[in-house]
Amino acid sequence: MVTATETKKVQIEIFRQDTPESTPYWEKFEVNYRPNMNVISALMEIRQNPVNADGKATTPVAWDMSCLEEVCGACSMVINGKPRQSCSALIDQLTQPIQLAPMRTFPVVRDLQVDRTRMFDSLKKVKAWVPIDGSYDLGEGPRMPERKRQWAYELSKCMTCGVCLEACPNVNSGASFMGPAPLSQVRLFNAHPTGSMNKDERLNAIMGDGGLANCGNAQNCVVACPKGIPLTTSIAALNRDTTVQMFKNFFGSDHMVD
Amino acid sequence: MSKEREFYWRRLHSLLGIIPVGLFLAQHLVVNHFATRGEEAFNKASGFMASLPFVILLEIFIIFLPLMFHAFYGIYIAFTAKNNPKNFGTLRNYLFILQRFTGIFLVVFIVWHVFETRFQAAIGAKEVNFNMMAEILSNPWMLGFYIVGVIAATFHLANGIWSFLVSWGITQSPQSQRIATYVTLVIFLALSVVGVQALLAFV
After folding, report:
1. What is the pLDDT of residues B138-148, one digit of tens each?
2. Which of A82, B72, B119, B171 could form a disulfide with B176 if both were Cys (CB 3.0 to 4.6 A apart)?
3. With an 8 Å Cβ cutoff, is A213 touching chain B?
């Protein structure tokens, strides 16, 4: 190793919390710099040698991670104020001291670990799947136009990371809003030729508690989404769909799914 | 108000903000503008509005009840948000926050404004006319309060039209929403000029 890189340090400040109920606190760390480091490799350095910037021994920092290539969403955290994936957050591109905090819109489990269960509950609530189970072979579904498939693929990139919920001012402990991610999934599955056979069920689900109407159009979600999903377009499109659904529900209709 | 029904409450809140409350605001500012043509013209116009048939019913059903619902549900909406302009300094996020701040301010302003004018007339203490407004606005603090109030109202309406278009699914694509931003900006500027010109005519 070159001497110069050995002496270079990375300053990291972590908003830590020992248990779900305990008071959070900032702790500073200094990590030896290596070229091409990301936030996760810096956290791994701390885990190897859990000593804070004052030279005192401390507990290793807890965080979640899995794929390390920005497709699983597990390692999301707030880095210098912005919610994003820590695997794709490169140390060279961040202002120091690098501040790491958990996405506090979710219940904090420990340190940078959060419990994203509410997102998965929301996906169940809005029926974000295509029901094809039957007692006999249902055969092939209708074909999807290729250009529509390409468009829908963008919506399918959602990895339930929770960044859009953290960015949204209307998703917080005082509100029941499910947030943009599950809503956009409703648009995805309602666009699917087989999925659309149950589209009224999904629309009615997002017209309930914590649903679509809670959106306040701050449009932070679309800016924050690491996958570039057009979340606000999805929300506006669902606003139109639910407007129509509202009238169908009120007056009755023979065209619930077409 | 049941949370399961909130979709309908939110849609009602959005609709009432435009029809009738927004329309009433535009009409109110336009009628006020008669003040720029002098005392007599204003008194004639406000006298005409006050002498409309069924005026009490019009006031209750077109102004008072929709405005009360919009205000009270709006306060609830404003206080459920956790603003984060520091981390997301986009135009839309600032407008989102301003919409909530102007909303809260307007509740205070409108309560005061109605108390000072319509309520005084209702208890027979004063008459709503040019002199009443000239007297109120002769205080420079009150003039400032009214100018801020009028601009807050025109902003809240213009930005509310933008949100209405999204909330009902009329503007969907980013391009259509951008165009709506420009159109509502023009509405904001036009109504602000009309409103503030009328206020200055009383001074």
Report:
1. 999 999 999 99
2. B171
3. yes
Q: What CATH class has A7-114?
A: alpha beta
* Full 3-state SS string of A102-169: CCCCCCEEECCEECCHHHHHHHHHCCCCCCCCCCCCCCCCCCCCHHHHHHHHHHCCCCCCCHHHHHCC
Reported ipTM: the value is 0.93
Which of residues 97 through 126 in chain B touch A, CB cutoff 8 A?
A: 97, 99
Q: Is 80 exceeded by the pLDDT of residue B195?
A: yes
CATH 1.20.1300.10 fits B3-201, yes or no: yes
pTM for the model: 0.93
What topology is assigned to A117-251 in CATH?
Fumarate Reductase Iron-sulfur Protein; Chain B, domain 2 (1.10.1060)
How many Cβ atoms are within 10 Å of A122's Cβ, its own excluded?
Answer: 24
pLDDT in tens, A102-116: 999 999 999 999 999
* Yes or no, beta carbons of B4 and A208 under 8 Å apart: yes
Find out whether the peptide bond into A180 is cis, omega within 30 degrees of 0.
no
Record: contact B172-A246, CB cut-off 8 A: no
